[in-house]
Amino acid sequence: MVVVMSADATEEDISHVVERVESVGGSAFVSKGVVRTIIGLVGDIDSFHGLNLRTMTGVADVHRISDPFKLVSRQHHPDRSTVWVGQGEHRVPIGPDTFTFIAGPCAVETSQQTLEAVEMAKAAGATIMRGGAYKPRTSPYAFQGLGEEGLRILADVRTVTGLPVVTEVVDARDVPVVAEHADMLQIGTRNMANFGLLQAVGDAGKPVLLKRGMTATIEEWLMAAEYIAQRGNLDVVLCERGIRTFEPSTRNTLDISAVPVVQAKSHLPIIVDPSHAAGRKDLVVPLSRAAIAVGADGVIVDVHPNPEQALCDGPQALLGSELRALAQAVRQLPPAVGRIS
Amino acid sequence: MVVVMSADATEEDISHVVERVESVGGSAFVSKGVVRTIIGLVGDIDSFHGLNLRTMTGVADVHRISDPFKLVSRQHHPDRSTVWVGQGEHRVPIGPDTFTFIAGPCAVETSQQTLEAVEMAKAAGATIMRGGAYKPRTSPYAFQGLGEEGLRILADVRTVTGLPVVTEVVDARDVPVVAEHADMLQIGTRNMANFGLLQAVGDAGKPVLLKRGMTATIEEWLMAAEYIAQRGNLDVVLCERGIRTFEPSTRNTLDISAVPVVQAKSHLPIIVDPSHAAGRKDLVVPLSRAAIAVGADGVIVDVHPNPEQALCDGPQALLGSELRALAQAVRQLPPAVGRIS
Amino acid sequence: MVVVMSADATEEDISHVVERVESVGGSAFVSKGVVRTIIGLVGDIDSFHGLNLRTMTGVADVHRISDPFKLVSRQHHPDRSTVWVGQGEHRVPIGPDTFTFIAGPCAVETSQQTLEAVEMAKAAGATIMRGGAYKPRTSPYAFQGLGEEGLRILADVRTVTGLPVVTEVVDARDVPVVAEHADMLQIGTRNMANFGLLQAVGDAGKPVLLKRGMTATIEEWLMAAEYIAQRGNLDVVLCERGIRTFEPSTRNTLDISAVPVVQAKSHLPIIVDPSHAAGRKDLVVPLSRAAIAVGADGVIVDVHPNPEQALCDGPQALLGSELRALAQAVRQLPPAVGRIS
Amino acid sequence: MVVVMSADATEEDISHVVERVESVGGSAFVSKGVVRTIIGLVGDIDSFHGLNLRTMTGVADVHRISDPFKLVSRQHHPDRSTVWVGQGEHRVPIGPDTFTFIAGPCAVETSQQTLEAVEMAKAAGATIMRGGAYKPRTSPYAFQGLGEEGLRILADVRTVTGLPVVTEVVDARDVPVVAEHADMLQIGTRNMANFGLLQAVGDAGKPVLLKRGMTATIEEWLMAAEYIAQRGNLDVVLCERGIRTFEPSTRNTLDISAVPVVQAKSHLPIIVDPSHAAGRKDLVVPLSRAAIAVGADGVIVDVHPNPEQALCDGPQALLGSELRALAQAVRQLPPAVGRIS
Question: How much is the ipTM here?
Answer without folding.
Answer: 0.91
